[in-house]
Amino acid sequence: MRVLGVDPGLTRCGVGxxxxxxxxxxxxxxxxVVRTPADAELGxxxxxxxxxxxxxxxxxxxxxxxxxxxxxxxxxxTVMGTAQASAVAMxxxxxxxxxxxxxxxxxxxxxxxxxxxxxxxxxxxxxTRLLRLDAPPKPxxxxxxxxxxxxxxxxxxxxxxxxxxxxxxxxxxxxxxKVPR
Length: 181
Description:
- The chain has helices at residues 42-60, 76-95, 105-113, 120-130, 140-175, and strands at residues 2-7, 12-19, 27-35, 64-68, 100-103.
- A 5-stranded mixed beta sheet has the order 3-2-1-4-5.
- The longest helix is centred in the C-terminal third of the chain and has 36 residues, at 140-175.
- By secondary structure, the protein is of the alpha/beta class.
- A hairpin with a 7-residue loop joins β2 and β3.
């Protein structure tokens, strides 16, 4: 499974591609950051993020895109920018028919470190170890993007089984004919 992880942000949008399957060694295929100038007009920044993500999709051809789920913070302006960058990533993948998965920061931290409350340094250290890298990717947005991809690779089999069971139960429920009284 090849996954592009996206840690959305308007100034720095982390991107990282990991390939592998749960229970086997993983391989990093690429990591980086799509950057936009903080003083640029919002529309131009979103176009730059789109172009950057499109380049990553062209180059790495992922089967899935994992994006950090935006969560509420105290700073609404920061949340809005993160949500806008997240939407661009989802749009780019969906336009190509690539499935998109959203993972919360605590899900990613728990998957990679074993604790949903891990700090950035712990996530970076575990990403470095899991991908057998010489040093943690910099900036932290890049390491977070790799952590998202790892999380998806490890969680996808269980999530897919749950979705399949839910769909089977739904179909079984729909096929049951109601008996008239």
